[in-house]
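Researcher: I'd like a structural prediction for the single chain below. Treat it as a standalone chain; there are no partners to consider.
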Amino acid sequence: MRNRFEEFVACAVEINRCIQRIKDQEMQRFGLRSRHTMCLYFLGCHPEGLSVGALADLTKEDKAAVSRCLGQLAEKGLARSEDSGGKRAYRTRHFLTPEGQALAARMNEAIAQALQFGGSGLSDEAREAYYAAAEQILKNLKAYLVED
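Model: Treating it as a single chain, here is the predicted structure.
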């Protein structure tokens, strides 16, 4: 008999490790670290710019980590922020520079290749079922945590 707990945890941990290693490997080619991946990705998806708070919500990271990441991207000329005009720094919108946009496009190609490879052998129906099941499990676990 299979132990669902062991299988679920082992699979989730191993998937996360693989994702981290892929981020490390791919971002290293660009002279960046894995922690920059999601900031670049979401800034690329939002050309209108994002505040640190909005980016923290999207990346599931804390504001301080996102702020540090944005500072590093700005130092490399990949991101910039609007003039704060006296607003709090966390409300200032951040954007990708043209260089950052080009990098995000290259990064998205690498993401597409990794997803294609990772999902090889799955039918479209199996892929949809997997994502639906994963989202339901996540929703259920979040609800369980709230009830605790």
